[in-house]
Amino acid sequence: HRSLQVGTVAWADMTHVDRAVTVADRGFRAWQATSPNERADHLDNAADLFESERAALMTLCVREAGKTLPDALAEVREAVDYCRYYASLARRQLQASQSLVGPSGESNQLRLHGRGVFACVSPWNFPLAIYLGQIAAALAAGNSVIAKPAEQTPLIAGHALGLLHQAGIPTDVLHLLPGDGSIGARLVAHPDIAGVVFTGATDTAKAIQRSLADKSGPIVPLIAETGGQNAMIIDSSALAEQVVADALQSAFNSAGQRCSALRVLFIQDDVASRILEMLRGAMAELSIGDPAILSTDVGPVIDTDAQLALRKHAIFLSANGTMIYRCDLPGATDVGTYFPPQMFEIESLSLLKNEVFGPILHVIRFAANKLDNVIAAINATGYGLTLGIHSRIEETIEYITRRVRVGNVYVNRNMIGAVVGVQPFGGEGLSGTGPKAGGPNYLQHLCTERTVSNNIAAVGGNPDLLSMID
Predict the structure, then answer these.
(1) Which of 85, 222, 293, 369 counts the highest number of beta carbons within 10 A?
(2) Distance between CA atoms of residues 18 and 196, nearest Å
């Protein structure tokens, strides 16, 4: 595999940033004047093209991002869903103004408009779905877009952007700036950027927030979706077989490289030994290797930096926790950035200072009368993205969901793979600003609101009163 080259990319420089913003700002005016229905039609066209290019897009997801074939297929489907969903929202929410109730003789209308040039900064772990979700929403809302993809996955971004142009999105409205973090920093700091959508690390989101605050001119909104110290709580009533299947998927699908992935498993000590023994057996059956092989369960992590960080954390856990199980790596994985899924028992959640982005599962036992301590520990992390609950006691489920401050709670199922329009996704606290991606309120946060109040009595009275007489 050493000699295989996926493709080539020409990195943007600082002059490209300035030029793209200038052109996108000019393109915004005509794009905003385009009807929401027409903008939505272009996104539906794009969805059709993504479906027709499914094999090519999947291949890029496997070869450039190391995704397994099932994950690559899900990635294309989610990208298509984002395009169609935001197109549908644009037709429903943006096409007509909203009439507001007011005094007789006065008309009050509320309408949503695009803000201007949006910077969309997307991650490598969902290089097609999140990338397309950000772009599709901003375009549907009437904004022009400059997309800055992760530097690990520019080929996927480039192919997808070409399809968007082919679908009818004007080239002066949608731009691509592949490059490292310095390109993203220059982009979000540009004085003519009207909004930023970001998915990635919490520290980067805070840096963007500071950059936007330091800019002169208009106050610029930031929509950020970041990571999480995601937990799953298992009580003694849970169905063990379901727990094992859901925990395995949540922790190790996509090599644990999902922002929603399970990081910490809280198990009531009455059932911990049995469930952990079952988890060990299930982990032993995981197939680790080439993501292009259909039978592979776990592929490589994204790059050598990620691999090294996981190795360092595993060494830390060996000194501060107890190894429960580590998968064996087959010989073929000596080429590539593979990291074996593993599970450690630790004493306290406070041992984990930051999110660990990869296939390491931390296990903490708790006594039945200490559920409040578990909830307090989860809330104390400051993160609030996903939470899993496995219990067959409705009172317990309700008790936990009312007290834990997280954006997405999953009960008696896995905690990954949120479906656009069905499970709107996004956290709170250190896990993001909201609104939820793939949810009914998302487009409105990419728009500016304008109202027009008209004293219609000044030109002859209220025609609605005449209709009442009829």
Answers:
(1) 85
(2) 16
Q: Report pLDDT for 465.
A: 63
Structure tokens at 288: 């680790």
Residues 6+ apart with CB under 8 A from 98: 109, 110, 111
C-alpha 412/C-alpha 260 separation (Å) is: 16
pLDDT in tens, 399-428: 999 999 999 999 999 999 999 999 999 999
Query: Which is nearest to 269 in space by CA: 236, 303, 226?
Result: 236
pLDDT of residue 46: 98
Strand, helix or coil for residue 419: coil
Examine the residue annotation and report whether 120 is marked as an active-site residue of this protein.
no
Q: Which is it for the CA torsion 269, 227, 150, 443, positive or negative?
A: positive
Task: Please tell me which residue in 64, 225, 345, 355 is annotated as part of the active site.
Answer: 225
Q: CA-based angle 271:272:276, to the nearest 5?
A: 125
Write out the DSSP string of 171-213.
TTTEEE----HHHHHHHHH-TTEEEEEEES-HHHHHHHHHHHH
Q: Please tell me whether the overall predicted TM-score, pTM, comes out greater than 0.90 for this model.
A: yes
- Say whether 71 sits in a helix, a strand or coil: helix
User: Residue 17 to residues 184, 186, 191, 216: CA-CA distances in angstroms?
Assistant: 9, 7, 12, 18
**Residues 390, 232: contact at Cβ < 8 Å?**
yes
Tokens (6 digits) for 47? 């969805």
Tell me, rounded to whole angstroms, the distance of Cα 283 from its chain centroid: 27
How far is Cα 140 from Cα 164, in angstroms, rounded to an integer? Answer: 13
Cβ distance 162 to 174 under 8 Å? no
The token duo for 228 is 């999480």
Residue 252 in contact with residue 298, Cβ under 8 Å?
Answer: yes
pLDDT of residue 331: 81
Question: Which residue ranges in the chain fall short of pLDDT 70?
Answer: 1-3, 332, 461-470
- Catalytic-residue membership of 225: yes
User: Dihedral, CA atoms, 317, 323, 328, 334, nearest 10 degrees?
Assistant: 20
Task: In whole angstroms, give the CA distance from residue 88 to residue 94.
Answer: 10
- Coil, helix or strand at residue 16: helix
Q: Exposed/middle/buried for 54, CB within 10 Å: 0-12, 13-18, 19+?
A: middle
d(CA 345, CA 320): 9
Please give the C-alpha separations between residue 449 and each of 94, 314, 464, in angstroms, as whole numbers: 11, 50, 26
369 DSSP 8-state letter: G
CB atoms within 10 A of CB 334: 8
**Cα 334 vs. chain centroid, distance in angstroms?**
31
Q: Find residue 360's DSSP bridge partners.
A: 342
- Identify which of 390, 408, 362 has the alpha carbon closest to the alpha carbon of residue 260: 408
Report the run of H or E that residue 60 belongs to, with start and end. Answer: helix 54-65
